[in-house]
Structures
1.
Amino acid sequence: MEDIRRYIDNSLFIKWVYDPDVHINDYWDFYLDNHPDEKKILFELKSELALFRISGQTLSEEKKKMLSEKIARKIQARQRRTKVSEIGRFVLKYAALAFLFIGLGGGLVYYFYQDKPEKADFSRYLAMPEMSGKPTLVLSNGSKINMNKNESTVDYASLDRIVINNDSIIPVKKGVKKVEALPNQFFIPYGSRGKLILSDHTVVWLNAGSRLIYPSEFTGDEREVLLFGEAFFEVAKDKSKPFIVKTTDYRIKVLGTQFNISAYLGDDVSQTVLTEGSIELNMNNEGLFGHGVVLKPNELFSLNKGTNETNIRQVDPTKYVLWKDGILKFENEDLSRVLKKIERYYDIQISLKNPLDSSIIINGKLDLKDDKNEVLYYVSKVAKRKYIKLNERSYTIE
């Protein structure tokens, strides 16, 4: 029991099972290379826990721990049993799979009874087309406009023209109310940021590695956009036309307010923080009997994509929105998460020589207007490590 409890009580092990990322995987690869005798029991415990993850059950941290202890006892008992216990193990696993297929069946029923265009929206735009290294605007006619500034602005507020970076103007025919063959798209690559003013005067700040899909003019009874990545919204008030933001995980409905969404496809956690007003949030996989949640100012909603676990808590929203002003603020953040944000902002790659360092806790504030070498120097100093420049886009911390 003592050996198993070492894993259960290790937050890095629970993270590896339920919320893995590249750094946590490196950590355990490194650990197993140095402790090969622990591989069998570690992977057995991990695989048993993973069964509950794929079944879609939502587990709090406390429930995870209780479940881990329960499974640990089963594993120990199994090691003392004969062939009969192996049959029991077989039945247990296939019972879990049966549960999973029942869950999938329910999901399929929901899929066929819900509004089909909502699903088609994402399948249509998941693939990222080839773009330049600068922000890129794609118009409804398919034409691409590559911008020459890392921080670019696109303004649709004047319905007869689109203004780019306050100087370049694209004329738009007035009074044309046709349905667009394709929506407009604003791409922000790594190493850049963008600001978008929509036709209703809503302002959207887009972070590095993000994309917003939207119409050139809102003409229906809703103002709907699709987001991949991170954005801060200042929504113009219009009680007759709710503003809808869709991500691959959930849907947000507002009338007029300010909030930040971080919903990168590659991240394990998706977050929304509200700075003023209120928003209604509905999960995409709630099914026919789901109900939304309403966020109040200074509340953070987070979704763990691996476990489907959700959480709402009070926060200081400042640290979640400072990025639009070129500042990152960290409070008790893992080094791995800090490095991921720096990689996106500067469009660089950072590796850790020792994977164990991914769990180092970082506190502080970074001014992203500084040179990337200055930022890496500060982070490595706080982590009590040093950084080494391999080339213009690659660094390692050791």
2.
Amino acid sequence: MNFNMTLAQRVQSRILEYGSFITVLFVVSIYLSTSLAIILSGLLGLFWLLSAQFMVLPGTLKKNPVTAWSLLLFLCFIFGLCYSSATYGEAFSMLMKYRELLFIPVLIPFLTTERYRCWVWKAFVIASVLILLISYLMDIGFLDLNKHGDPAFKSRITHSIFISFFAFFCAHKAYDGKRYAKLYWVLFIFSVYNLFFIVEGRTGQLIAVSLVLLFGVQRFTKKVLLFTVLVVAILLALFLAFSDKATRINEGIASTQAYLQSHPEKTEVSMGARFTFWRDSLRLIAEKPLLGHGTGSFAKEYQRITRNEHLIAKNPHNEFLMISVQLGLLGLLIYLGFLASQYYYAKKLPNKEKWLAQGVLLSLIVTSLFNCPLMDHAEGHWFTTMIALCFASLEVGVKAEINHA
């Protein structure tokens, strides 16, 4: 009997170890290959089942409430299938787009060991440096990998989200003044330059500014923080006033002003279109405020009420509204609970993981205001994986600070 139990434990341990190796590859695949990410995510799910982690899932949910909230949100999308106004195929397709919420409970068992978390952080650094290098090579015409013409391996939005957080990560590593500090400062500078003068993704630029301010709150005294805010404000003002790379930001400001001044002909400009999507989404929420129109219903319901046939939307470019239209205020409250749980339980992490978890949370909130990161493939995979990586130590009650890379 004891021999059988020991053998089972050894097999389970080995499966978890293999799952940790796959997690490392999975992180890199998120940056480079959609197909490979899907395959590896399937393998991770299989290894999770083979290692019988479903038997200890209640304990995981209790120790790690962030996991519980992510699972609860996914269950809401399953419940939304029951009353959706969309066809079953459309509703199920939308459910699969939010399957990334399951990555948090699935990945955490593979990340409870400090050594494996360090490997995954190193994979994050390697993948980030790689897409940063590819972006610079695309900008000088050495590579042509984006059909839209943007100097980014992924979309401009996706790339800017990834690199803005990588700059935040590098700032923390450099500020620690330990090994490779100078190299991290260089990577930080190259990342910021890439965000504002190469790729020009507005979402990433806003995230970068927000993360710089968060970094100041985390690491600086009040006087230094005030000076940092002043410097950031001056640099932004100079950038907007004199740089020809600020065109997209200025266009966004102009289209916002035009929309607020009731110039409908301007709504087809990016930000103006978003305001129209948001306004009409609020109308849909008002129709069924409690439970919404069901999973996958947004596109069909939006087409029903839109006044502008040229502005047909599959999503409102806002995660809060996207969830509210489909799942009502119930779904919105659960999503807010998911975000709030990250804020609260990040305080229980060691400083280095706490700071990074707060950075991931702020990035997710900012992205959710202008996009649907959980629904989008690359962003959804990335955010849920980073959340799992930051909060995995809650599972084992880690108190020691961790050297990530």
3.
Amino acid sequence: MSTFKSQFINIMVERGFYNQCTNESGFDTYLYECEKSGKPAVGYLGSDPTGDSLHVGHIVPLMMLRWFQKCGHKPIALVGGATARIGDPSGKDKLRPFLSEETLAENVKGLKKSFSKFLTFGDGPTDALMVDNWDWFKDINYLSFLRDIGTFYSVNRMLTMDSVKTRLEREQPMSFLEFNYMLLQGYDFCELYKNYGCRAQIAGSDQWGNITSGTELGRRKYDIELFGFTSPIITDSAGKKMGKSEGNAVWINEEKLSSYNYYQYFRNIGDAEVGKCLRIFTDLPLDEIKRLEALKDQEINEAKKILAYEATKICRGENEARLAQETAVKTFEQGISDDNLPSIELSDIEGLGILDAFLKIGFVQSKGEARRLIKQNGLKLNDAPIQDENYLLSSKDIRDGKIKLSQGKKKHGLIKIA
């Protein structure tokens, strides 16, 4: 039974996306009136280009924006080309490293690619729009900004925000530069309202202080109510944030992570997380999700395969999802070393150390990590556990032009001989 008038909030509640809203009834009424009139509501999600791809941890608010669009509303994807030059202090104990202009430009391109996988962009009334806050910050006058915006902010209130309070409680230094971050994000929200009629910001719960910075500025400067709507931080049954796999981010862009490894991340989700992940990371109907999450014992593996396929289909496309699924079947169910496994191509492997081989394919971050895994029988060469950390590859290790490397039971890759 629907609790809210608007389709969007009902979906958010049913699928486990809803954490907090600045004015629940007001936002519900705003969305409902837009849905009833056929005039789309406008909402945005921002991300700073501190890296060249989003990862699975970013997908939760991104899927919220995707549903926002499916409900007939207009999403704005904001890339923080300006705010990345400062760095969001939320959840951080120290100043983020400064990025070069060239790196920022590349990262902006990568983030635009990540957004484009989940949203439909175009010129239509509900098509997504992509903007960069560098466009309005690059020529701003500092004194004018202090006078026009700074006067609406109370330092007393800013000191109560989690991003500031937590840093100070830990007695970690916070630069004046970082202290300004919430002013910039608040200004973003108001710029999007002025230019595009945007009245909602969608984000993870860690952005609550930055969001309310914008809603407060909208109320005090423009006499308009803006809305903030957040998702919970999604964790697994052990309480760890989802989106990390053995210490490595599960990247959205394919040049950072193969579709097979993306598929495998969801295929290897814990049994207790299957229902939650089906609701959040796929578009499957709730009735089907309820059927799948009710499966027990070995049957739950079928639900995980569907989860992995559907999540990969959204992010990488149907063809890549199908190939990843076929590769997984050949590798795990038929014992075949498939060409679609993650691979590197080398012209000469004679004398290549086994530790370097695992570094090259990206299964370990250091030789020390590889040594530890070898001691635990966690690394394999052509399906045989590696005993000697000083082993050198040679032509006798090549099978049909390939060498298979494995980490544990679930991570496999190939060295292809050019």
4.
Amino acid sequence: MTVSLADIEKAAAVLAGKIVRTPLVPAVGLADDWGVDLHLKLENLQRAGSFKTRGAYVMMSRLPPEVSHTGVIAMSAGNHAQGVAYSARQLGIPATIVMPEQTPFTKVERTRRYGARVILKGETLGECAAHAEEIAAREKLVFVHPYDDPDIIAGQGTIGLEMLADMPDLEVLVVPIGGGGLIGGIATAAKALNPAIEIIGVEASLYPSMHEAINNLPASSAGQTLAEGIAVKQPGVLNREIVARLVDDIILVDESAIERAVQLLIEDQKLVAEGAGAAGIAAIMTNLERFRGRKVGTVICGGNIDSRLLSSVLLRGLARDGKLVRIRCEISDSPGVLAKIAGLIGQCGGNIVEIYHQRLFYNVPVKLAELDAVIETRTPEHAREIMDALTSAGIPTKLLGGATPEGY
């Protein structure tokens, strides 16, 4: 079974007034820096925080009336869970979501907030899937697949309709790939409307499952990725056929690029995106020559990132950019030295965030001490100025963490 433009247009009619008609906005800051006419489809503003609501709503809206008494079941650790739970509430259908036992509390509570019954079972999504199938058989529940279903694919394809309705002259679409429902739907719609448009998929390099599947390569997906929303080991069978037929290329992006993309969206565009949602930005950022001078659209497919993880990404970004550094000073263990160091850092315009004063361990001479300082700076060059000032004052200093200033 395949999905057609007509199927996607029917899905759009089903979704009219039921979901957010998300905007396609120019990425002014990034476009100016990169020389790319870049536009962002903001599915992070969608109800439940991701594009998943589209496909889930379309699929469940077409279920027979008796399902409103029995219910549906899904297996997910994140966006699919919330999309199904939200859509089920809107349609008056009982929903059960099986999630891994270690799912962050915030994701569990968000899913419950939409009225779903949440069952925590298993350590992996594979174990969750097996348990969900057992419950579905026992309670006669309809299983809502996250991506390998024609109604799901048609629902996600409405994003492509909206992007080309808003900007018919887009030359390239850059779309994250997990199981393939998103790119399968978008590629079907976009290529039907404009056969010349280029469709480029993006996968995390740790989870290149679609790239491997369509190229008959051995499976290698494994590891911890910031883009957990697209960390899929087995892409959908329906979607593999669509991707092989309609997608022009797949770009693999590493973890540092994904992390950097999340940071750039916050700093330059004032947009919160999860790792999967920023994957398109990571692909463009690491392949600028391919996109420079072209009119490009990418989907910010979700914004459900844990607050603590986002905080870590931003702080690591400051360190990477040389705006947060950690230095170590070797000092005499005598009164007034700490005040002298603080004064020198302040005179140079640095802001001390944390101080660690070490004098007890055996590798520090008894009359000396080590002082580690975390300092907020303007640039790596500014960090170098601070370190030069300390060294000139007779305080040997070395860099422990942050962007390395030239010469250190």
